[in-house]
Amino acid sequence: MQLKNSRLKIQGADKHIADLDARIGGLPNSDIATVEINPDRGNEVIKHDIADRAAVDDIAVIAGDAVHNLKCALDYAWLGTIAKLVPSAVSKFAKIPPATPLKVRFEKSR
Known about the structure:
Number of domains: 1
Largest sheet: 2 strands, antiparallel
Distance between the termini: 58 Å
Number of helices: 2
Strand content: 5-15%
Structural class: alpha+beta
Shape: elongated
Strand order of the largest sheet: 1-2
Radius of gyration: 23 Å
Helix content: 40-55%
Order of helices and strands: HEEH
C-alpha cells in the first residue's frame, strides 16, 4: 500500500510540475524591458520587470506543492521498505534517516 501511495504522490507532483511549466511559459508575454539613461554619466541601464505580479506567488506555491509531494513520496517509499525489512520499526515516528552532515573546516584568514 505504501508504494501505491508513493506513486500517487509522484503523479501529483508531475501535475504540479506541468502546471509550473505552463505558468512559467506565460511569463515571456508579460516581460517589460526599459532602458534608462543616466543624464549625469550617460550610461544606460536595462531594467526588466514582470507585469504579472501574481506570477511570483503562484510559482512559489506550485513549486512548493511539487516538492512537498515528492518528499511525501519518499516517506511512503521508506515506510514501505521498513514494513518489508523491519516490520517492528514501523511507527508514526519512522522517518527517512537524515544524511550525515558534511563537516567543513574554514581556515582563518591571515
